[in-house]
Design goal:
The structure holds 2 protein chains of 2 kinds. Chain A contains 33 helices and 6 strands. Chain A is mainly α. Chain A has 3 domains: 147 residues, D-Maltodextrin-Binding Protein, domain 2 (3-Layer(aba) Sandwich); 222 residues, no CATH class; 248 residues, no CATH class. Chain A is elongated. In chain B, strands 6-7-8-3-9-10 form a 6-stranded mixed β-sheet, sandwiched between helices. In chain B, strands 2-1-4-5 form a 4-stranded antiparallel β-sheet, with helices on both faces. In chain B, a hairpin with a 2-residue loop joins β9 and β10. The two termini of chain B are 21 Å apart. The chains are: A mainly alpha, B alpha/beta. Chains A and B meet through α1 and α11 of A and α3 and α4 of B.
């Protein structure tokens, strides 16, 4: 049973893990190849990219900003007149409003660089007599010497029907070339300016004759910028993807080096021959890979921002950077780096050599790139399913964070799901790393992974329970919203929700337990406790709710109470119509029993084997609390503390009784009582209990509830010594019966 | 492995042995569903201060046997124990009792021999003062002081092998397992291994050495086990083997063995 060989007391392994990691880091950082990806790449890549980007954009812009149009006239005198009219027209237009018409290209560039994209026209004017040529104006245009030609001919005053002083009016015959954008734009600009000059003349004339200058139809335009999120498909969407890719690149080399490389060099045998558990070895390697990945990310971030600042682009690319955003981005990147390091380790652990590892990683990189690029789609909104899709969730969340448009629920889901996938990947890596298959080559390693252990075990390994947690969490997010989407009556919806609980918290863990040959009764602590635990459970189940309720409303602010009232009012009317038994079954019995089955019976049970009682109670309770914060499509943070507290109580009852059953009873009673209280609210309001109004309970209720709690506490402590013997001890001597980290198959 | 079998065996071999291997069997399932038996019912013992040569052609099951003794592989049946500690019951303690030199001359390219030895000592929980003292002593005995602070990547194969041999002794184990320690080494390198074995003998360690170089083994080992197709065909001192097989050298014995038992039918002898 080489299972047992992997056991190392937990108190020792953390410092050992760190020592292992320092050795790995020392080795990695002495290697020039790492230093290149770590330091030189980001130091060179970003400034280069930045320079190219700026050069490209600015070049483009100067082109766009100065349009040079060659204009040909017949005589020098004509060109002088032309120039004079153009200047007048420009002045009038400038005076009217500063906003010149913008072409789409210019405004896109302006979006990125934050400059106004006013277009300047430069008329290069020349005349035929200057050129001393015999060619006509038409020839000048068709032969592309000029973009536009203008023939000015005086208009006979007699034709106009009145006489006036001053220079004669001119007829402008504009010759332009078909199919030339420059000619077209020049034409538009010239006519625009001439129109302005004419306009002004008519206005003046009307003014002088004391006539209203109002036209039958006046036009005013307002340009609206699009309000859609992500329409700024500017650089910001790329940053998360670049960061993610860089984190991946940073982690790849050390991950290969520390697993496949170790085997290629023949040093793996040194490690596996040593009396150190594979999990500890792997943990050391994981810490080292994660550190390098984070160093790479940091270097990339620093270089990226330094480049942006140096180019003066930080404002336009990033918008407002606040400390919260920075912290959020860092947390996201750390969690992602941890996840990806674990994934890499699990893959490279299969490989025998560098070459093989690289062969495995190339498809992985390609597979990761696809969703990464997919997530660049500007109108893609993060939702439940995308939030639990690895990699896509990080890139999308990164984008939202940088745009300052974060849904906290989604942020939490992304973090938790990514972290859980990381744990899952580590569990897989632990199973592969240094196993027989690894020492003898990669043949059959994947089947090894899915092979069932031959011997049954009493309690699920942490690996199994963590994998289970990852699966349950993802499905919890996805499946949790299914019942409310069903187009059926509320009663059926509620029952469906109950079924979902059964599926998530009972069926999945049970399937996994059967698969990994965990003894079902032992693995879920389904054993009969001593009678006084039942009593304690009943007492607590009946008397805890006022305190939990008080705790919850004491956290709530008035504003939040109003919000919640609104949320509940929508259901309230419908809920009244649902028979009490359905509410009890679907909201009390099913979730309570199923949650106990998973959180206490399975999860706490399995981590109790490796950690102290306090740790196992606390971690399962916090987890329990977190699951309760997420309700369909909203975060109920106020539920965190009460639920966690409830989780602690349930955890203690479980720890003391060694059985999941009293906790189930307690939980069912607790939920059931809350439902009954709200059902008979109208009757109870006379007693001062108004749940939906979030009133405080009368002191008498609280004092009354204190008595049974005290008795229950006494029952729990008094019988602590007589709890069923499960071979659980803190000294760790016999705990390696359960230490089943690799379950050699 | 049954309790009875173990009792049988200890009767047969006496209880003074440091290493007791009894009826070890390892089967690997193949992808086509069949089973290959890499090690088949192998039993032997090794005394303190004795060098036991586990000999056989490539693929005879030598390395697999060593791995099972070290606790890296779980035997399909049978057990081995060191100083009465069974590998099945206490694999971690077994690992502390064994120094392991494998075929591959594995060193950490970017660490110096001193750093590497110190790291290995840490893996075996050797206290820091002991660590420094042992490194100094081994540097003298195995003669690698000259390059003790150079990085391992630049060392020659022979130099790496010295570091590797020192590495296996860092936790001062009573038992040494050497798997093809001379592979890839020249005459001088092999001489180093030979001296190393003398050192181990002088320190009263129980040694199992695996090799397919039979001429070498004759010089190295006190007793031999001839492994073929996973079975221990002959077992004893050179003189004993000579009387059983009527051949003078191990090489001839092997040639006969290969000729007469292509399918390996003889029972383990001794």
């Amino acid at each position: 049973m080489s299972d047992k060989s992997q056991y190392v007391p937990s108190r020792e392994s953390s410092s050992r893990t760190w020592r292992l990691a320092t050795k790995e880091l020392r080795e990695i950082l002495r290697d020039r190849r790492t230093v290149i990806t770590l330091v030189l790449m980001p130091l060179l890549v970003y400034p280069l990219l930045g320079v190219i980007l700026r050069k490209g954009l600015l070049n483009n812009l100067t082109h766009l900003q100065k349009v040079e149009v060659h204009v040909c006239l017949e005589t020098k005198e004509d060109s002088r007149k032309f120039a004079a009219e153009m200047i007048r027209g420009e002045q009038i237009l400038d005076a009217q409003d500063g906003t010149a018409e913008e072409t789409p290209e210019v405004s896109a560039a302006a979006d990125v660089l934050g400059t106004s994209g006013a277009q300047e026209f430069d008329f290069v004017v020349f005349s035929l007599d200057e050129l001393k040529t015999d060619s006509s104006l038409e020839q000048q245009v068709t032969e592309r010497y000029a973009d536009i030609a203008v023939r000015l001919t005086p208009v006979d005053d007699v034709e106009r029907g009145f006489r006036r002083r001053g220079p004669p009016f001119l007829n402008w015959q504009i010759l332009r070339r078909d199919g030339s954008a420059l000619s077209d734009r020049g034409y538009k600009e010239i006519t625009k300016r001439l129109d302005a000059v004419n306009e002004r003349y008519v206005d003046r004339l009307l003014e002088r004759k004391q006539l209203s200058s109002v036209r039958p139809a006046t036009v005013s335009t307002q340009v609206l910028s699009s309000n859609e999120a992500g329409s700024g498909s500017s650089l910001i969407t790329f940053i998360p993807l670049v960061l993610v890719l860089m984190t991946m690149t940073g982690a790849v080399y050390p991950a290969i080096d520390l697993t496949a490389g170790e085997r290629e060099r023949g040093t793996m045998e040194i490690l596996v021959a040593a009396p150190v558990s594979r999990m500890t070895l792997l943990a050391g390697k994981f810490v080292a890979v994660l550190t390098v990945a984070l160093l790479t990310t940091t270097m990339n971030l620093i270089s990226m921002f330094a480049t942006l600042f140096a180019l003066g682009l930080e404002g336009t690319v990033l918008g407002n950077v606040g400390p919260t955003m920075v912290v959020q981005v860092i947390v996201l990147m750390v969690v992602f780096a941890a996840f990806f390091s674990a994934v890499l380790l699990s893959i490279t652990s299969v490989a025998r050599s560098f070459k093989e590892a690289q062969a495995y990683l190339v498809p992985l990189m390609l597979i990761s790139l696809t969703p990464g690029v997919f997530s660049l789609m500007p109108n893609l909104q993060i939702n439940g399913i995308l939030a639990v899709t690895p990699l896509v969730n990080t890139v999308l969340m990164g984008r939202d964070l940088l745009q300052g448009d974060v849904n906290l629920l989604m942020f939490a889901i992304v973090l938790i799901s990514t972290a859980l996938y990381g744990v899952l990947a580590l569990a897989i890596a632990a199973r592969i790393f240094g196993s027989d298959a690894v020492l003898y080559g990669s043949g059959g390693t994947l089947t090894e992974l899915f092979k069932r252990p031959q011997e049954t075990i009493d309690v699920a390994s942490i690996q199994t329970s963590m994998s289970c947690l990852a699966i349950v969490f993802s499905l919890f997010i996805v499946a949790g919203s299914i019942p409310s989407r069903l187009n059926v009556s509320l009663s059926i919806q509620l029952l469906a929700a109950g079924l979902v609980s059964l599926f998530l918290f009972v069926l999945i863990p049970a399937c996994l337990a059967v698969f990994s040959r965990v003894h079902l009764l032992g693995g879920f602590s389904l054993r009969l406790p001593k009678w006084w635990f039942w009593l304690a459970a009943v007492l607590l189940g009946g008397s805890l709710w006022p305190y939990i309720y008080e705790l919850e409303i004491s956290i709530l602010t008035d504003g939040r109470i109003e919000e919640l009232k609104q949320i509940y009012e929508r259901f309230e009317g419908n809920l009244k119509a649902v028979p009490l038994w359905i509410k009890l079954v679907s909201l009390a019995v099913a979730p309570a029993a199923c949650e106990e089955f998973f959180f206490r019976g399975f999860f706490q049970n399995s981590i109790r084997v490796r950690t102290s009682a306090t740790m196992s109670i606390l971690s399962s309770a916090v987890l329990f609390g977190l699951f309760h914060v997420i309700v369909k499509d909203a975060l109920f943070f106020e539920r965190l503390l009460p639920s966690t507290l409830m989780g602690i109580v349930l955890g203690i009852v479980f720890e003391r009784s060694g059985s999941v059953l009293p906790g189930m009873l307690l939980h069912v009673m607790h939920n059931g009582l809350l439902i009954i209280v709200s059902e008979f609210e109208s009757e109870l309001t006379q007693l001062g209990i108004g749940i939906s109004d979030r009133q405080h309970l009368p002191a008498s209720v609280l004092i009354g509830a204190a008595m049974p709690i005290a008795v229950a506490v006494m029952l729990l402590t008094r019988t602590g010594l007589e709890r069923p013997d499960q071979g659980r001890d803190d000294d760790g001597d016999d705990s390696h019966d359960y230490a089943e980290w690799n379950s050699e198959s | 492995m049954t309790q009875d079998a173990r009792l049988d065996f200890s009767d047969q071999c006496g209880s003074s042995s440091l290493i007791t291997v009894s009826r070890l069997t390892k089967q690997f399932p193949l992808s086509d569903g069949s089973v290959v038996t890499a090690v088949d019912d192998v039993s032997f013992t090794v005394e303190q201060g004795e060098v036991f040569g586990l000999l056989g052609p490539n693929g005879a099951g030598k390395t697999t046997t060593l791995r099972m003794i070290l606790g890296l592989l779980q035997p399909s049946s049978g057990d081995s124990s060191i100083d009465g500690v069974s590998v099945a019951d206490n694999p971690d303690q077994i690992k502390r009792l064994i120094g392991f030199v494998s075929t591959s001359v594995g060193v950490y390219q970017w660490l110096t021999p001193r750093e590497m030895l110190s790291f290995v000592a840490d893996l075996y929980d050797v206290s820091p003062p002991d660590r420094a003292e042992r490194i100094e002593r081994l540097a003298d005995v195995l003669d690698f002081r000259e390059y003790i602070d150079r990085r391992c990547g630049v060392l020659s194969t022979g130099q790496k092998q010295r570091v590797n041999l020192a590495r296996a002794l860092m936790h001062d184990p009573p038992v040494m397992l050497l798997d093809e320690p001379t592979r890839g080494l020249d005459v001088v390198g092999s001489q180093v291994v030979f001296e190393y074995l003398q050192l181990l003998r002088s320190q009263r360690k129980a040694v199992i050495i695996c090799t397919h170089r039979l001429d070498e083994a004759e010089r190295f080992a006190d007793r031999f086990g001839l492994l073929h197709h996973g079975r221990l065909q002959h077992y004893g001192t050179l003189v004993e083997l000579q009387s059983v097989t009527h051949e003078q050298t191990l090489t001839q014995m092997f040639v006969n063995l290969l000729k007469n038992n292509p399918e390996a039918t003889t029972c383990p002898g001794g």
